[in-house]
Design a protein that fits this description.
The chain is of the alpha/beta class. Helix content is 24%, strand content 26%. It has one domain: Rossmann fold (3-Layer(aba) Sandwich), CATH 3.40.50.150.
Amino acid sequence: MIKTVYENQTEILSAIQTLHCPEGFKCDATFGNGCFWKDIKAPDLKFDITPIKEGVIEADSAALPLSAGSLDNIVFDPPFLTYVKNGRGHKDGSVAMSKRFGGYYTYEDLEDHYRDSISEAYRVLKPAGKMVFKCQDIIHNHKMHCTHLNVVFWAEIEGFRLLDLFVLVAKHRMPGPQKGIQRHARIWHSYFLVLQRDKGGSK
């Protein structure tokens, strides 16, 4: 039985593939170091704004070198860290997590990238195509940002609907404030959203 909550992202990807992408995943728009695909077959199309692995094409997830309506599905695993001064290019050597994954300086920067990438996914997907979007809610500037709900809202504006949702519970501590008075519950999970493009033509 496929369930909604897992402690292993490979199990989530396998569940998504079984239910929604039976012919396999076709494209990763933010490939990074490839750990996402450690235990499951990676897509043939791999993109990253700053490629660090062989075979990955340099491209922004918001401007992919693909024809409109050319993909059955696309996977988007963007950074979620904020206060990263050097952005998404894996260039902030002072913070191990941001060097590995990149990030954003403000939540507005995160929103701009997420929304632009949702729009690009709509363009490159076939009608009824799927976007698999991994995201995490965060605390930024002492304010809770319920990113997974924001993503669903932004996606609906673009022409997607939420088809399925999975929760990944962390086995290890996720990044967060290391000192000071705790004001919010510690976020210990992330989401895999399966968004389905409408059946209309390309924009």
